[in-house]
Amino acid sequence: MQAFFEFLSHNPYILLFLTVGLAVWLGRQSVAGYGLGMVAAAIIVGCGLAVAASAFGVTLQLDNFTKSLFYYLFMYGVGLRVGPSFVNSLGGDGIKFTFLAVVSCVLGLGITVVGSVLLDLPVGAAGGILAGSQTMSAAIGSAEQAVAAGAIALPPGTTPEQVSAMIALSYGISYIWGTVGIILITKYLPQWWGVDARAAAVRYEAEHGVASGDTPTLSGWTRAGLRAYRLENPQWSGRTVGDLLHANPEYRVVNVVRDGVAVGTGADVVLQPGDVIALGGARETLTEKMGLIGPEVSDRVALDIPLDRAEILVTNREVVGRELASFRDQEAANHVQLLGLERGGHPMPIARNTKLQRMDVLTVVGLRGAMDQAGALFGRIVRPSTATDLLTLSAGMILGFLIGLIEFPAFGASIGLGNAGGLLVAGVIVSSVASRLRFFGNTPSAARNVLEDLGLVVFVAIVGINAGASLLAQLTGVLALKIFLVGFVACSIPPVVVWAIGYHVFRMNPAVLMGGVAGARSHSGPCREAAVSIQSNVPWIGFPVAYAVSGVLLTVFGYFAMILAY
What we know:
This protein has helices spanning 2-10, 12-28, 38-55, 64-88, 94-118, 125-133, 138-148, 160-192, 197-208, 241-247, 283-288, 300-303, 368-378, 390-405, 418-437, 445-474, 477-505, 510-520, 524-533, 544-565, and strands at residues 30-31, 34-35, 224-230, 252-258, 261-262, 276-282, 296-297, 308-314, 336-343, 346-348, 361-366, 379-382, 407-410, 413-416. It has 566 residues and is of the alpha+beta class. It is elongated.
C-alpha cells in the first residue's frame, strides 16, 4: 500500500481524478433512497485517501491553483444558472418567495455563528457547518476565501491548512442531517400543522389547471391537428389557395399534392379536382367542416410535413404577466403545441393560469410558419445549439475577476466580493443579458452543468485531500458532537419558521409552500420528495425563485460565517 500511495503522491492528476471517480461512484449509492451525493462523497474519499496515506508516512497534497481554478469555474456556472430566476425574484409573487429564502438563509447563518461562538468551536467550523447544514457546498469555497484573503486573524499556532481541514470536517459531520433532515422536515411539515397537502394540491390543480403528478407524460390528444383531403367539392375547383384561406382563416394550407408531386402552398396556387390538400389547425375546426374540400385521405406525400421544434424566450413586455389560457384565441395557438415551460433553469408545471415571466423559456413544436408567429408574439425563437461561446465565457470570467477587485471601506478594513463573489455576479449578469438577446453567450445546459458539477466536485476533492493530513489531529468525540448539534439546529429551525410565515402570514397554498421551503434551503431533493409524496407537480411552482435567491445568499454567507464567528 505504501508504494501505491507514493505513486499517487508523485502523480497528482491520477490522484485527483481517482478521487473524483470514486466520489461519483460513492455518491450514486443510496440506502433507503438516501445517498451522499458526489460532493459530500468527494470530501469523504479525499480525506480517507489522505488519512490512509499518512498512516504509511506518505503526504498527499494537491496544488491550490488547481483548487481555486475549478472553484472559480463553478461559481461562474452558478451565476449562469440562477441569473434569470434571480432577476425575476425582484417583482410580482417572487417577492414572497424571495423573503422566505432570505429568512431561511439569515436564520441558518445566525444559528451557525451563535452556536460556534457559544460552544467555542475552532476556527473554520462555522464555515463548514453552514455549508453542511444548509447543503450549500459552495459555501466551503467562500469560507476558505475568507482565510485566504486575510479577513480573519488566525489564533497563534493555527495554520491555514488546519482551518481548511476544520471546514471540511465540519461540513462532513453536518451534511448528513443537512440532507436527510430537510427532506424529512419538508415532507412532514403539513402533517405537523394538521394540513392535508395532497388535498391542497388537488384544489390547486383544479383551480389553476395544473397536470397532476401521476398524469402520463405522453398523451394521444394534441390541440393542433394535421389532415389531408382530396378536392372533390366543385366550389373550390379553379379557385386559389388564397381564396380558400380567405374564406376559412382558421385553417392553414401546409401542402398541396397533384399526381403525387407537391406543387406548393402559395396564395396564387390554383386548385384542381383530385388535388390532395393538407390542412393544419385546431382539432375541433378540422372536424367542423368535414365536407369542405372532399373526403379525408391518408396521403403520405401530403402529410409528410416536417414539424419545427424550438425554444421561445419570453421577452415581449406585452405578454409578461398574462396567463397561458389567454393565448388560446391567437392564430398560432391552433398550429403549435406547448411541450414545456422552464423558469430559471427548472421545469415548471403548465397550468391554464400560469402567468408568464420575463425570460421564461417555452418549448414548442408545430408548423414552421406558426412557430415564427409564436416567436414574434412571445419574444424570440432560440434554436438549440451544442456550441459554447468561449469568447463570452472568457469575457465573463474577466468581468468577474474585475468585479472581485472592487473594495470599499467598512469596519476599519477593506471589504469586497473577492474573485468568487465577482464571478457569481458576472454569471448572473451574462446569463440575464444572454437570455434577452440569445445571439451571443450561448452556454448549453450540458456545458453549464460541467462547469458546476466538475468544478465543485474537483474543488471539494482537493479540499478533502489537503485536509486529510491534519484531520485526525483535530477530531475528538466531544468536538464532533458539538459540530453535529449546531448543524442539527441550523438545519431544523429555518424551514419550520419559513413554513409558519408562508402559511400563516402569506396564506400560501401548502403544496406550493412545500416547494418554497425546499427552494429556500437551495435543495431540490425535498421538493422532489414532496412532489412524490403528495403525487402532484404543484410543489415545483414554489421552488425556482426561492432556490435562486438562497443559492446566491448561502454561497456568500460562507464568507460571513467565518468573519462573524471569529
